[in-house]
């Protein structure tokens, strides 16, 4: 019988995770099956329990259950602790190991797939919600000169700065505070793109060689990427590479094998 894995969320039908993990399993010859599982909004814990009882070995967790998964975990990796959210569960006997592979996925996409170093660069992170918190530690591990967190509600950016101050050089403010920021990498971690909106961005955020990165993955360029292009930015990326890399990192946690990600990123970009 194959080992069972699933992505759990609500809604879940749009998830690309089953396609990605099925390709990884074929490629690395793992005897496993990966499906999409919907949980009722008020029944995440029971749905996980049932999946475990049926022989499940691990799960990916997506919206809106990452906090519940964090609370359910009996052990946490450091990156999950700092993210205060879990996107990967590994079932190990009685233990539920909670991990968060989102930030590492982002950092790997930027450094490996997009061939852009984070070390010694000036980074602007837009947003101070759960998505932003989840990527700060893995970005700081690459030792940028500065990681500036800009948010509409400044207090939330300041709180994140305080949380991560011991890990690197952080700044916090609203978007206008970074008007002459001259950032090398600007990452949109707000949920504004989901509503086809854009935070009020000043001109002057970007330089000639900036990378503009939207963590959201969509078929059409997001408002943020359109804005960046209008500002003359040539290096644009959406979250498809991050999506695949966070999956690869989960797969590595479960199976101890790192799958190749190039083909599936290419395929997802082709089928947009
Ligand atoms: P997520 O888990 O996706 O990060 P969240 O925790 O609700 O969701 O955070 C949403 C983030 O997107 C916040 O940084 C939010 O800014 P505020 O803290 O000021 O609310 C940001 N955001 C959402 N819509 C936005 C918009 N139209 N303009 C600017 N920022 C927006």
Describe this structure as you would to a colleague:
The chain has 272 residues and is α/β, with parallel strands linked by helices. It has 2 domains: 3-100 and 242-270, Leucine Dehydrogenase, chain A, domain 1 (Rossmann fold, 3-Layer(aba) Sandwich); 103-238, Rossmann fold (3-Layer(aba) Sandwich). The chain has 10 helices and 12 strands. The chain has helices at 17-28, 44-53, 66-72, 78-83, 102-113, 130-140, 154-164, 223-230, 240-255, 262-270; strands at residues 3-9, 32-38, 56-61, 75-76, 88-92, 95-99, 122-126, 146-150, 170-173, 183-188, 206-214, 235-237. A 6-stranded mixed beta sheet has the order 2-1-3-5-6-4, sandwiched between helices. The chain has a 6-stranded parallel beta sheet with strand order 9-8-7-10-11-12, with helices on both faces. Helix 8 links the parallel strand 11 (206-214) and strand 12. 2'-monophosphoadenosine-5'-diphosphate is lined by residues 127-132, 151-153, 156, 190-192, 197, 199.
